[in-house]
Design goal:
Elements (H helix, E strand, L loop, with lengths): L1 H6 L5 H20 L5 H4 L2 H15 L7 E5 L7 H7 L4 E6 L2 H14 L4 E5 L11 E5 L4 H8 L14 E7 L3 H4 L6 E5 L12 E7 L2
Parallel strand pairs: 1-2, 1-4, 2-3, 4-5
Antiparallel strand pairs: 5-7, 6-7
Helix pairs in contact: 2-6, 4-5
Length: about 210
């Protein structure tokens, strides 16, 4: 918990308890259904929880915001963000059913009331969302095709509605064909751990 609390020092007692439960919950479920690589389990809080929360360093979601997490896997970045923003509604989708089972079990164990998880592709997801979040499930041009129709037109945040994408490495070539307005935020500006030296959040405006 220390690594989370060192960067997010205004957690409620409930939030601290929920974050503290995450490692053991995912160790248990990872033994049943492999949703996290074995090498990452030992660095779970840094490489999964804190990495997911990098989005919160770029933007703090307002109460009532609708967020879609595409290709959530075992629940990242959606579950950590749902803990941090209990007044925000998160819809988590993945094309692999067993991963959504883990998301539902973890959400139930944590008592999260603001998470809905569905075994489906992004293109099949109904409704409009203020933001779409994800962890590098596809190249950005392809990802845009999946989600561009899912974004609510009216923005209410400091950043325009659109995509908040966790990505690593050199993004110059990948983003060179994107015509939408975008900005790249380096997570090394927020977190000091070496893991974050090449990690970024990409915001793409879709309205």
């Amino acid at each position: 918990m220390k690594i989370i609390e060192s960067y997010f020092d205004n957690l409620t007692q409930l939030q601290a308890q929920q974050f503290e439960k995450l490692p053991d919950l995912y160790r248990f479920w990872n033994e049943q259904i492999n949703v996290i690589s074995r090498k990452d389990i030992d660095n779970f809080q840094e490489r999964h929880v804190l990495h997911s929360l990098g989005i919160a360093k770029v933007l703090s979601f307002h109460q009532g915001t609708q967020v879609l997490d595409v290709g959530t896997g075992g629940g990242f970045p959606g579950i950590p963000l749902a803990i941090l923003f209990p007044e925000v509604q998160f819809t988590l989708v993945d094309s692999i059913g067993k991963k959504i089972k883990v998301v539902n079990e973890v959400s139930l164990e944590l008592g999260l009331k603001n998470v809905n998880a569905f075994h489906q592709r992004a293109e099949e997801t109904k409704g409009k969302f203020d933001f779409v979040v994800s962890r590098a499930v596809a190249q950005m041009p392809e990802f845009l095709n999946w989600v561009s129709s899912k974004i609510e037109k009216k923005s209410a945040h400091s950043l325009k509605n659109g995509i908040l994408y966790l990505k690593g490495g050199d993004l110059q070539q990948e983003m060179s064909t994107i015509r939408n307005s975008f900005k790249i935020y380096s997570l090394s500006d927020y977190f000091t751990e070496p893991f974050f030296e090449t990690k970024k959040v990409v915001h793409v405006s879709l309205n």
